Please model this.
Amino acid sequence: MRTLLSILSLSLLAGISHAADVKTEKEIALAVVAVSSNVVVENYSQAVNESGRLRMLSQRMAKAYLLTAMDVNPDKNQTQLEQSMQRFAKNIDALKTFTLAQGLNMDIVSSVERQWQDYQTLLKTPGQTRGAILQKSDQVLSACETYVSQLESASGRSSARLVNMAGRQRMLSQRIAKLYSALAMDSQNANLQKELQTAIGEFENALNTLKHSPDNTADVAKALSQVETQWNFSKAGFRSMEKGSSTPLVISLTTEKILNQMNEITAMYQDIDQHKGAAQAKSLAASAAGAK
Model:
């Protein structure tokens, strides 16, 4: 079994190693820029994207905390945790400013902020139990989901749903990695097994929906096809856990690739939504001028 697992791990790693070698330095540089620069949210397309990023970060931080505790690439995962915490804080500040400027109900974003304050206290303290980290990450996720829905609804455009759905795939990639890591620590936990299967099913269903969107450009369709290929690689790792083996390092790498791909696709959908918003505003302005 160990030999088969090693072969599986090497096979999966081979499928992503070339891309990882090419992009690692670039991705690290981009992560540093994203953390060190200010986050500015100027329209609803950006707001749905960046609030959706909060969802992803809620799961990414828990995953990084657990992997560090498991001594799986501890230095890398500790850095990932710290960068994610910084980005979450910058995003919530920018989104609060946008929400206030739009005259929206501030209660929802304030709830996210309260949950975040408790969560970061846990994350800054080594030795927290797995259960405490998982529970709080889910509470933050729930608050973020409500906030993204508020912003999507306020945008008044159906295309904002695609930004939301694609952004949610980022979250699911990290949620799957989080739950997989947790199960590597407690493989007989039925609740974790159920949550993992639910997340896998949600990702697959949403990917299928996105693939068939009439708003897709040729570039979006090509990028989604690449995600599907990487997703199929990842599912081989999921099957290994069903057979009693786990490869959290490999799953963390494959889901990281999916995260990067879905992040690019979310930006594409954001551009589509922004163009539709601009066209909508132009049409309304023309109608108003014609009515005078």
About this structure: The chain is about 85% helix and 0% strand. The radius of gyration is 20 Å. Residues 1-14, 16-22, 28-33 have pLDDT under 50 and may be disordered.
